[in-house]
What we know:
CATH architecture of the largest domain: 3-Layer(aba) Sandwich
Distance between the termini: 23 Å
Bound molecules: 5-S-methyl-1-O-phosphono-5-thio-D-ribulose
Strand content: 15-25%
Amino acid sequence: MREKINIKFPYPAFYFKNNSLFLLDQTKLPRKIVYIEIKELKDLIKAIKELKVRGAPLIGVVAGYGIYLLSQKIKDNLKENLLLSISQLRNTRPTAKNLFYVLDSLEEIIRKEDNPKIIKKEIKRKVLYFHKKEIVNCLKIAQYGDKLIPQKAKILTICNTGHLATGGIGTALGIIFYSAKRRKEIICYICETRPLLQGARLTTFEILNSPFQSIKPILITDNMVGVVMKDVDLVLVGADRVALNGDTANKIGTKTLAICAQYYKKPFYVACPTSTIDKNIKIGKEIIIEERKKEEIIKINNYYLAPKKIECYNPAFDITENRLISAIITEKGIIYPPFYKNLPKIL
Length: 347
Ligand code: MRU
């Protein structure tokens, strides 16, 4: 029997209460704890596009709650209006597979059914199921992943893959929390994750606000990876979309970690639920990589770091080739290479 764990975070990433959806505005962290109410579709679209809510699994769950909320509010033409809302949500962030995983499933319910009462009921059932499943999957990933963590471990990670990215205990960071709960001593090197600093702002905040004093978080800038890699035991990252051959799209900078890990012969692990694996994508090159506006690079708050006129390239994600990945940790177990053979088996 698996050990039961219950890790509570002081600041839930979102909550749904009395038919109202509230999101913790992650752009304000760690300075302020602000919850924004999502009243209509445009609020949710804005929140996802501006990364007020983010992280592949969490985007999927929250989009589901958004559709549930709308289904309760829409008075006429429920079917048409919900389908339109789903298509608008699809255009928010193209790389995170979990968004499409949830929206595809809700769209199927809506297309199959004509009775508005049943549509509403089924959407509610499915969304609550997705939310619960995400929480349970995080725990299973953590339990499998823990097997790869030594009693004393120095781990390098990037971006934020914890509660704030999943709604559960997290994927890569969830493993770290779980191992800490099992009394392992962990030093966690966190890449700041330019340009939007999810590592510096969110992962540090989550670890410092967690009950696990045995995790020592150390923040580094992204260009320190080559120096730090020599000293770490392993690299642990999340994923936004995984191709059937194991090629993995994750936060920009992940690939640099993987290349460097291979040079120093350090294991490089990806942790994600199977809802992040895309059955329709065979290789990483087929994954659409979101490009974001240049202001994210040249500006911090209202302060320009670089000339306004400068041309920039700002992909939000990169693709780590399968041969750089030692294993993919999912809720169904740890998958080892060759991924093109072993990943389809678990789906
Ligand atoms: O742009 P973001 O902040 O949504 O990117 C998040 C990541 O890249 C995470 O590593 C990924 O979504 C996995 S989260 C469990």
